[in-house]
Design goal:
The structure is a single chain. By secondary structure, the protein is α/β, with parallel strands linked by helices. The chain contains 30 helices and 28 strands. The relative contact order is 0.06. Bound molecules: adenosine-5'-diphosphate, aspartic acid and magnesium ion. The site of magnesium ion has 4 residues, from loops.
Length: about 850
Amino acid sequence: MRPSTQARLRQPWARIQNPFGVWVPRKSRFKFGARNQKHKKMQVLKFGGTSVASAESITRVLAIVADVQAAGPLVVVVSALGGTTDALLELGHAAAAGDAAHYRTLLRQLETRHLAAAEALLPTAAAQAEVQPWLTADFAELARLAEGLAAVGELSARTLDRLLSYGELWSSRLLTAAARARGLGAVWADARQLIRTDSAFGRARVDEAATTRLLTDFQTKNPQTLWVLPGFIAADAHGQTTTLGRGGSDYSAAIVAAALGAERLEIWTDVSGMLTADPRLVRAARPIPHISYEEAMELSHFGAKVLYAPTVQPVRQRGIPLWIKNTFEPAAPGTLVEVAPPVGASGPGGVVRGLSSISPLALLTLEGSGMVGVPGFAARLFAALARAALNVVLITQSSSEHSICVGLSEADVPAAQRAAAEEFALEIAAGRLDAPSAETGLAIVALVGDTMRAHPGISGRLFGALGTNGVNIRAIAQGASERNISTVIRADDVRKAINVLHEAFFEATYKQVNVFLLGPGNVGRKLLAQLREQQPHLREQLGLQLRVMGIANSRHCLLSDGGPDGDGLDLGRWETELAAAPACSLDEFTGRILAQNLRNSIFVDVTASPAAAGQYEALLARSVAVVACNKVAASSELSHYRRLKNLAQEFNTRFLFETNVGAALPVIGTLADLTRSGDRVRRMQAVLSGTLNFVFNNYDGTRPFAEVVRQAQAEGYTEPDPRLDLNGSDVARKILILAREAGQPLEMSEVANTSFLPPSCLEGDVAAFYAQLTHHEPHFRALYDAAVAEGKRLKFVAEYADGHAAVGLQNIAPGHDLYELRGKDNVVLFYTDRYPEQPLVVKGAGAGAEVTASGVFADIIRAARL
Ligand code: ADP
Ligand code: ASP
Ligand code: MG
């Protein structure tokens, strides 16, 4: 084999700065060419539509061709200028539909585009004068063809092939002329005279023997070193133009390479090789350096557009190495398709070589007791589908043989149902089979790798990764070769599934996490600042790419438009952007989160709103994790609390609310660790209100009670409504949550709350509340004095013991674990089987925006690392 293309093509453009100048070979090229001339082996290079979409791209192609030509004889196979085939197709349909204005516009556009390319590529008037007459003649002919179509009002497959053939005819002749103008001695060869097919217009099958004969004859008669051949098109035995199927130029090149026993085949396109996944779906997709013919075939069969699937077979049979290279980055190594690629050359462990997907797909199911143990059912079904010329993409049959399921293109469903119903008419009439049913809106995602069979656990990883992201698998098929594991999923889950799998199999060190935050108030704003600051650390230390994809308050919602693979919202500018974002309701916000369907999504509720808590069910049921600072859900009816926890379990996600009790203190986490490890909580005693603690620590009769409460509110310790703290109901919610987390099925109404507030304090609004506090100053003073008289301190205590919970004000004696509490500290004492006398104590700052935000942050990380 000659040295790699990479070596040959170092800075190829340096030599074509004047595109119209005659190319002068470099010294090294003579040397290189001379060495290769000994072998005289043919190279076949195919350039796709994107590589010849403009005069500038064609100039790049010529540079590559010039370089390779120096190494020996060469065939260049070329596609139509990018987009031309689609335009011709549209033109044909418009003409057949009688839409003269439309087809004429298309015709004009095509002509202008090709004439402009000719003008840009051909340096002299003489060279242009060679090209213009046939281009003009072709367009006149095409115009007549279109008029004919409009007259008869229909477009047969045969005429369509003729119509489409113009694209490749123009591009190949243009390229030939441009190569000649640069002194490259190119010869144009008409593929219709060299590639013989049957008459299956639209996707004709190649007659290999006849084609090999034609090509070798041509080679003998034309020993020139450079031929240019239109891809995609061929002709049947009657000389009628046929095509090889969309994307078929790759196949033309493979046929030529096989027939001539080429040394190698190079497919030049707009990406640097066959990638681990479709780059339009996965930003992190990367080139696969080596791949086997079989793997390449599987990937292309299952949707990797970069290579037309039939291309592999001809070169594989002859053992011809196949390269996939990038016209726009010729120095990149590209992909080598070969017999025995090195194991472990790509991906962690190299087990999965690549991923691909096909959509839209449908599943046709044939079901009924009449199938069990009766041989020949499957054969009859496939024969019926084959007779109707329907392509089966995937097959699954349950081991009970009760049903058989085939995957096919959605467009084929009606025909497939008809074919199956006809074939099994008797069985259906007799009730032994149900009428064939079809499910649409599906897709296949395939995992491909030759060595997967030797590695257990691949499907486990596949199911795990999809499961934690709520991607439901409708069917699964694994070929006996175990080279391909195909899963059928919903078409709108494809992007998410492919990205999740790409992370699981190719990006062991990095996981993308998508955060949606509701309520950027005091805590939310601090949280966003912390996330922003920690993003680099999360990526480097934890392998998490944490992106904030949405922020909403009660009026607006801001969603990242950076696409599923962007970097998310700019956390330096969210405030101004949110203020300018469109108005949107809470339902719309969650609706958008679900519609985006991003992997590893986390909904973070930093509100105190019941409406926000009302969204959790829908989110968890779609595997979106919920991190709630909001206590409403965890303290709602027991049945609802349980439903949310069960949903999280069922849909493999997390419902976390550590900050519901003691802000960032590890209270719920500690409780979970205790109970998970088999300990039993007998009793809990706690001071859980930062607000009440602050108030009773600061109230000594010198300032009015109302003023101290106001200060607590001003410093941000209280709930948005301070009465929730003062009347004990916030503490009651917390002990309720702790009791539930300890395994006690308790309702809020069962928590005894002896309020220390005179009832009139709770009768009006917040202003009235403060007025009442002032009015009742003597009451608070009396409570304080009584405690001091006993040498004790006032503490608002929550208690749980033997299934009962209560909250109320107590006088705590010195030496008690609850006595020494400063500022906004919280403390929880756990008395358990393992800590019967001396409790396990969790103590520290239990309120404040900064610590609460850090607690929410910790829950986000927990949810992300599930
Ligand atoms: P050409 O015009 O050169 O024939 P195609 O558009 O047919 O090019 O194929 C190249 C495109 O295939 C790429 O631009 C890429 O978007 C798409 N593609 C899909 N899957 C893959 C994959 N696994 N690897 C590389 N490209 C892929
Ligand atoms: N021009 C044809 C198509 O667009 C063939 C090809 O590009 O390979 O399908
Ligand atoms: Mg292609």
